[in-house]
């Protein structure tokens, strides 16, 4: 996990976690973590992780696939993470 996580808010942490845990499945980068696994990595409660994921989806940073527990970071989300990068 990137040490920058200690300096960003929890919603940004969720977005970073989703991107850093992506797997390529059928040509798509998909994060297979469920909400509890994401909550454990933030760390926060599952309910709070659910709220943050919902906000990220509503704001267009993440897309949720119909398959439960499958998330895709959108181009908008990747652009925000790129802007946050200090590299």
Question: Key terms for this structure?
Answer:
87 residues; alpha+beta; two-stranded antiparallel ribbon; 47% helix
Protein described:
The protein has a two-stranded antiparallel sheet. Strands 3-4 form a two-stranded antiparallel ribbon. By secondary structure, the protein is of the alpha+beta class. It is 47% helix and 14% strand. α1 crosses α3 (46-58) and α2 packs across α3. It contains four helices and four strands. The protein has helices spanning 10-20, 35-41, 46-58, 75-84, and strands spanning 23-25, 28-30, 62-64, 71-73. The model has no long low-confidence stretch (mean pLDDT 88). It has a domain at 16-67. The longest helix has 13 residues, at 46-58.
TL;DR of this structure?
Helix 1 (10-20) packs across helix 3 (46-58) and helix 2 crosses helix 3 (46-58).
Helix content: 40-55%
Q: Got a strand count?
A: 4
Mean pLDDT: 88
What's the total helix number? 4
Q: Supply Rg.
A: 12 Å
Tell me the strand percentage band.
Answer: 5-15%
Order of helices and strands: HEEHHEEH
List the helices and strands and how they pair.
Layout: H1 10-20, E1 23-25, E2 28-30, H2 35-41, H3 46-58, E3 62-64, E4 71-73, H4 75-84
Antiparallel strand pairs: 1-2, 3-4
Helix pairs in contact: 1-3, 2-3
